[in-house]
Design goal:
The chain is of the alpha+beta class. It has 3 helices and 6 strands, in the order H-E-H-E-H-E-E-E-E.
């Protein structure tokens, strides 16, 4: 499988390698929470809410952006809403919480070390926004 363009290019250029503990075949993660942008102009979940740090030009073009950090190419999620709120200091202005399910057909998974955080390295052509709903504005 090919990954989204930014990650695929970084892999091909040897800038990053997938972690050894990445999982390609896993049971669905049924409680996947992600912080999303919501405001008066943006009231629904879009695919922009699932961009990685490397896919956001304002971040990726900064001089201090680390192109060799694989974490910048993964989409960050939590499987515990309360832990996510604590870590990301939510609620915050213009931020909401989306909930959905992550399937192995969406991408490879890297689980965190006990804090409910995990990363998904998303495959090319996957649209995550359709499977998520706003649970908190």
């Amino acid at each position: 499988m090919r990954f989204r363009e930014t990650l695929q290019k970084a892999l091909e250029e040897g800038l990053v390698c997938l972690p050894e503990n990445v999982e390609a075949d896993y049971e669905p993660v049924e409680d996947a929470y992600r912080m999303i942008k919501l405001n008066t102009e943006k009231t629904v979940i879009t695919e922009d809410d699932f961009r990685t740090q490397a896919e956001i030009p304002a971040i990726a073009q900064r001089s201090d952006f680390d192109k060799s950090d694989i974490g910048n190419y993964g989409c960050s999620f939590f499987n515990d809403e309360n832990i996510m709120k604590l870590v990301l200091k939510l609620p915050r202005k213009n931020k909401g919480i989306a909930k959905g399910i992550i399937y192995s057909k969406y991408g490879m998974l890297q689980r965190g070390q006990g804090n409910s955080h995990f990363m998904c390295f998303i495959y090319e052509g996957v649209t995550l926004s359709e499977g998520f709903e706003v649970v908190e504005e």
